[in-house]
Amino acid sequence: MSRFKRMPLIERYREYLPMDENTPVVSLYEGYTPLVKLPRLSAKISDKLTVYVKFEGMNPTGSFKDRGMTMAISKAVEAGSKATICASTGNTAASAAAYSARAGLVCAVILPKGEVALGKVSQSMMHGAKVIAIDGNFDDALNIVKGITENYPITLVNSLNPFRIEGQKTGAFEICDDLGHAPVYHAIPVGNAGNITAYWAGYKAYKEAGKIDALPKMLGFQAAGSAPIVEGHPIEFPETIATAIRIGNPASWKRAEAARDESGGLIEKVTDEEITEAQKLLAATEGVFCEPASAASVAGVIKKAKEGFFTEKSDVVCILTGHGLKDPQRAIKICDPFIELPNSIDAVAEEMGLK
Ligand code: F0G
Questions:
Q1: Does any ligand 1 atom lie closer than 6 A to the CB of residue 243?
Q2: Is the CB of 63 under 6 A from ligand 1?
Q3: 296 CB less than 6 Å from ligand 1?
Q4: Are 172 and 188 in contact (CB under 8 A)?
Q5: Could you identify the atom of ligand 1 that is nearest to the CA of residue 291?
Q6: Ligand 1 center to residue 91 CA distance, Å?
Q7: 297 lines ligand 1 (CB under 6 A)
Q8: Burial class of residue 308 in the structure, from the number of CB atoms within 10 Å of its CB (0-12 exposed, 13-18 middle, 19+ buried)
Q9: Distance separating alpha carbons of residues 99 and 59, to the nearest angstrom
């Protein structure tokens, strides 16, 4: 279907989602994100792998969160809710703010102060959410949101809301529809662990429906300073430049482990340096600009390729969860500074080595 004939995501996959006849559809025409084959990057990292990225940065608010949010906000409206709230490292907040605005709901977002990328904060503010930054990290913010929604009639739209996970399953459906099968490996960054949970559920639902024959192995990657699942215990003070996944106690911890174990996959960690290198490589060799957390998926695949993990010819889909423009400050920091010259043809020609 052409991009210009797209329908709301939850209409497109209606039969796989908890849609009732009367469920209102709150949509910004999310989904249909490109699955991009990366021949140059594949050749660089392995002679066994065909690497694809699913560029979720192409969603309306620039991240995968829109898949779950269209479902969660539609269900909130169906239930008669008037207000939403979430804790967020930035992307959930941006998406909740946008879809709440679209539905005419009041939205509040609780953010870890000083740890949210600029683009994301600007989105929540522009969409008219009440933006509250707390002296604490994401895990603290999530505890506040749980406390609020237990005591007041406000809809929680973090991935603890089951409709979020339901909507996010559509990412797996799109990959299978595009490839004609499930990939052998599915690589994904892991933060609060909702997305790995959702993709695994999506692949299983498609297999049950007879749409695919085989399931992928799930490869989850956490940032080294924020890798509770890898370390086997919560991290009290998580750290990483990939602020989107700066999370020490993921809500869907057990379900992420189940996805790993049922699929015969793994959850490992990548360093901030490996993340940065992968982010730059994607942008400079393939023209795909993702945010740091997203690059954890590709960084993980590169690391495993170096270790000789991939022994047979196979395809891998890496989920690029958010757009690079979400965090322009970080991008500028990791690149060489640009050149400043006088207003002169000669000066520019000389700098370019033309004279
Ligand atoms: N990548 C990006 C860009 C994210 O924003 C997130 C999560 C993840 C990966 C990890 O996904 O939590 O489902 O394992 N961001 C949340 C937020 C926490 O508040 O925006 P996950």
A1: no
A2: yes
A3: no
A4: no
A5: 3
A6: 7
A7: no
A8: exposed
A9: 12
Q: Does residue 68's CB lie within 6 angstroms of at least one atom of ligand 1?
A: no
- CA 99 – CA 92 distance, rounded (Å): 11
pLDDT of the residue at 5: 79
Return the H-helix or E-strand segment holding 269. strand 266-270
Q: What is the dihedral of CA 249, 300, 174, 59, to 10 degrees?
A: 70
Ligand 1 proximity of 90 Cβ (cutoff 6 Å): yes
* Whether the Cβ atoms of residue 17 and residue 168 lie closer than 8 Å to each other: no
* Ligand 1 center from residue 6 Cα (angstroms): 25
- Cα angle vertex 124, ends 194, 189, to 5°? 25
Amino acid found at 215: L
Q: Which residues contact 189 (CB under 8 A, 6 or more apart)?
A: 195, 220, 221, 222, 242, 244, 245, 293, 294, 296, 297, 319, 321
* CB proximity list for 151: less than 8 A, separation 6 or greater: none
| 331 alpha carbon – ligand 1 mean position (Å) | 18
Positions of the chain with pLDDT lower than 70, given as ranges = 1-4
In 3-state terms, what secondary structure has residue 110? strand
pLDDT at 4: 62
The tokens 């021949």 sit on which residue?
A: 39
**Can you tell me which atom of ligand 1 is nearest the CA of 247?**
18
Whole-number Å distance, alpha carbon 354 to ligand 1 midpoint, is 46
Ligand 1 center–CA 92 separation, angstroms: 7
Report how far residue 144's alpha carbon sits from residue 123's, in angstroms, rounded to the nearest whole number: 22
* Residue 313: Cβ within 10 Å count: 11
pTM over 0.85: yes
C-alpha 275 – ligand 1 centre gap (Å): 15
Smallest CA-to-CA distance from 205 within 15, 7, 54 is with 15
Distance 208 CA to ligand 1 centre (A): 27
Q: Give, rounded to a whole angstrom, the gap between the first and last alpha carbons of the chain.
A: 50
